[in-house]
C-alpha cells in the first residue's frame, strides 16, 4: 500500500482544517515510526503525553513564557492526533481510550486557557476582563465538545458532516489560535478569538443540527 493510502487510513473525515493542512502531515509520520517499533507505546500513554504538553503550555504562559506556551500547545495538538492514529494502526481502538482522551483533552484545555488568562493579567490587562474572557473561552471550548457529542448521538451523524459549516472550531483550530497568541505575545486576543469561535460555532451548528434532525424525523414519519 502506498504511504498516501496508509496515511489516509489513519486520518478522520471529521478532521479540522489545521489537522488536515498541518498536524496530520507530521502526526502520521510519527505514528508510522511508533507502530513499527518492536513494542509500540499504548495509545493511552500517547494521550497522556499529548495532554501533558498542552497543560504544560498553560504553565509556560502563566510563568511568563508565552512563546513556549504556544509551541507546547501546538506540539500537544499534533501528538493528540497520534493516539487515535496509533490505535487505528494497531487495531487497539476502545471506548475506554476514547473516554480517557476526551476527559484529558478538556482538562488540558482548561489548564491552557487558565495560563493564558494569567499571562493576559501579567501583560497589563484588568484581572476582571482577563478572567471574563477566559471564562468565555473555556465555556466555548466545552460547548463545542458538547454539541459534537450530543449532536452525533441524536443525529446519528457527526455534526461536522451535517450542514455547510465545516469543523472550523475543532480543537486543532483552537490550539493553533493559542499557538499564534503565544508567538505574538497576545494571550487576551487569543482567548477572545477562541471564545468567539467556540460560541459562534455552537450556535450555528445547533441551528444546522435542528434542521437536519427535523428533516430526518419528517422523512421517517412520512415513511410510516
CATH topology: Four Helix Bundle (Hemerythrin (Met), subunit A)
Assign the structural class, choosing from mainly alpha, mainly beta, alpha/beta, alpha+beta, or little secondary structure. mainly alpha
Shape: flat
Oligomeric category: single chain
Main pleated-sheet profile: none
Number of helices: 8
CATH architecture, by name, is Up-down Bundle
How many extended strands? Answer: 0
Give the overall average pLDDT: 93
Low-confidence stretches: 1-8
Family: Belongs to the CDP-alcohol phosphatidyltransferase class-I family.
Keywords: Transferase
Pfam family, one: CDP-OH_P_transf
InterPro entries: CDP-OH_P_trans, CDP-OH_PTrfase_TM_dom, CDP_ALCOHOL_P_TRANSF_CS
Provide the descriptors you would attach to this structure in a database record.
CDP-OH_P_trans, 224 residues, CDP-OH_PTrfase_TM_dom, CDP_ALCOHOL_P_TRANSF_CS, Four Helix Bundle (Hemerythrin (Met), subunit A), 0% strand, transferase, CDP-alcohol phosphatidyltransferase family protein
Amino acid at each position: 500500500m502506498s504511504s498516501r493510502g496508509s496515511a489516509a487510513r489513519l486520518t478522520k473525515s471529521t478532521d479540522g482544517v489545521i489537522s488536515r493542512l498541518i498536524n496530520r502531515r507530521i502526526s502520521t509520520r510519527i505514528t508510522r515510526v511508533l507502530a513499527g517499533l518492536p513494542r509500540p507505546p499504548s495509545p493511552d500513554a500517547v494521550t497522556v503525553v499529548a495532554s501533558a504538553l498542552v497543560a504544560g503550555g498553560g504553565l509556560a504562559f502563566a510563568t511568563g513564557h508565552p512563546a513556549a506556551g504556544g509551541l507546547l500547545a501546538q506540539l500537544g495538538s499534533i501528538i493528540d492526533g497520534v493516539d487515535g492514529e496509533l490505535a487505528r494502526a494497531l487495531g487497539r481502538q476502545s471506548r475506554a481510550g476514547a473516554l480517557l482522551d476526551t476527559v484529558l483533552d478538556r482538562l488540558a484545555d482548561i489548564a491552557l486557557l487558565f495560563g493564558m488568562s494569567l499571562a493576559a493579567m501579567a501583560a497589563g490587562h484588568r484581572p476582571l476582563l482577563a478572567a471574563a474572557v477566559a471564562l468565555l473561552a473555556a465555556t466555548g471550548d466545552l460547548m463545542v465538545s458538547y454539541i459534537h457529542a450530543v449532536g452525533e448521538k441524536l443525529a446519528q451523524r457527526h455534526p461536522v458532516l451535517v450542514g455547510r459549516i465545516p469543523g472550523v472550531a475543532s480543537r486543532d483550530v483552537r490550539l493553533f489560535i493559542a499557538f499564534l497568541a503565544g508567538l505574538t505575545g497576545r494571550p487576551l486576543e487569543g482567548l477572545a478569538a477562541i471564545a468567539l469561535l467556540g460560541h459562534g460555532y455552537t450556535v450555528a451548528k445547533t441551528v444546522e443540527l435542528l434542521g437536519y434532525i427535523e428533516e430526518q424525523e419528517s422523512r421517517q414519519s412520512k415513511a410510516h
